[in-house]
Amino acid sequence: MKYSGFLTNLLILIVTLKAATIPNEDNRENKIGSEEEVLEEDHWIEEDINNNTLNQAATIPNEDSRENEIEGVWEEYKELEEQWFEQYINHLDVLDNSTFYQRYFEENTYFKPGGPLLLEIGGEGAITADSVRDGPSYKLAKKLHGKVVLLEHRYYGKSSPFENFTSEYMYYLNVEQALEDLAYFIQTIKRTTPGLEHSKVGVFGCSYPGSLATWFRYKFPHLADAAWASSAPLRAVADFQEYLEVASAVYANVSSLCVDTIRKGYDETKKLLSTPEGKEKVRTKLENWGCGNITDMEPNDILGYIRYVVADHNVPPNHGIESCRILANETVRTSPLERLVEFLLHQSVSVCSGYETDFPNDGLAWNYQTCTEFGYTVTTTSSKQPFNDSRKGVEEDVETCIENFGEKFNMEALQRGIERINRVYGSVNLKVTKVLSVHGELDPWYKLGLYEQNNEEAPVIFIPGTSHCAAHIESEDEPIALTKARNKAEKIMMKWLQ
Fold first, then answer.
1. Which of 3.40.50.1820, 3.30.70.120, 3.40.1180.10, 3.40.50.300 is the CATH number of 79-232+431-497?
2. Burial environment of residue 419 by CB neighbours within 10 A (0 to 12, 13 to 18, 19 or more)
3. CA–CA separation, 473 vs 480, rounded Å?
4. Are 236 and 430 in contact (CB under 8 A)?
5. In angstroms, rounded to a whole number, what is the distance separating the alpha carbons of residues 359 and 11?
6. What is the pLDDT of residues 282-339, one digit of tens each?
């Protein structure tokens, strides 16, 4: 998700543009198919035996059941290979037959004819084979004998129609074309896959893919029988001031002193960064933080990263309590600045560690979508947050839009794009059925989504003490409330998809 203009520039890292990986000529004959033949089963037998994994299995009553158990292990843990789907570049022009290849992974371990198609929607980044087995669709596949598919979003990862990422080539990057991609893919895979012809379809996503899941069920109810949308923002907005309000409450709900430390420490940092001597002092204090080489950063970059670390939306349930042990600790004689620095050194490694990518153009693609459809600038305009700034966040981000894509991508274009998205897809007032919306209390993005239920046919699950997309991926030490909420969500989806 977008944070601010300076971060957008850092994340985009416009380098030599790379062509998307295209399947070989032999595979172009098939609209749906593997890039290579599946590895022989013998390979998996040999690999598992060599790793002694099968020798540690529990005692099996008889040889036949043992063989079935071993076969299940091979199927569940074998590596998924890339698949390719020939997709139209422009669905809205029937005279334009240009196509590109869209990457996907599929998991068929538990699939039986008639079982549902469970489609995980890719978002603003490259997909990976490992994530196919992480989401709720995989767990439901075990219970419903479903086929799980993860489809990469156009222009991200290896699924770009063009190798050029200038604005004229990014014209086909928008919600409408992305939803048409899903529709054509579902229609085709159901028609061409034995056992799927009459299957129900569930679509899944968290964050932006959750938005797409909601909008897909809204626009194509004849193609999707149910949708699970975790942490899905549905209201596009230029000034997302609520973000820092929620992030601040994570600390304020523990201790007012905790938030006061952030406020005073941030103000002191700003003051120091206004002088050459102060800059060196700040750079020395934060020399070992996890957000990059601070000696190369301008003051606004440093302040932006501080806000980013403090307001991270991917936090564990006990984040507020653990953070305030540092921020509100007055047992030692330290200043608010020193306590804030200690917190930043502790927290920045985990928050800032996800910037490296094999697909640097993903950042540019997401920037294009925020410049033309969503906005989502996290601002300091609210008084209910600790960062006392006069910065003009929206204006800064629009300047980045103009720098990256041209003069036409100005404030007027942004506002028009936001108004259109909210008009066409209903914002938080859309009337939809069989869409499950799941949100976490600690996630600022819930403020832009369906977090209050006003329709029994579109249930909402709001989970206390959890953050962004928490319901989408299981963890061993998750709170009981999260486990119960996920179990409830699974029952709802099973009812819709059986």
1. 3.40.50.1820
2. exposed
3. 14
4. no
5. 11
6. 999 999 999 989 998 999 999 999 999 999 988 888 899 999 999 998 776 689 999 9
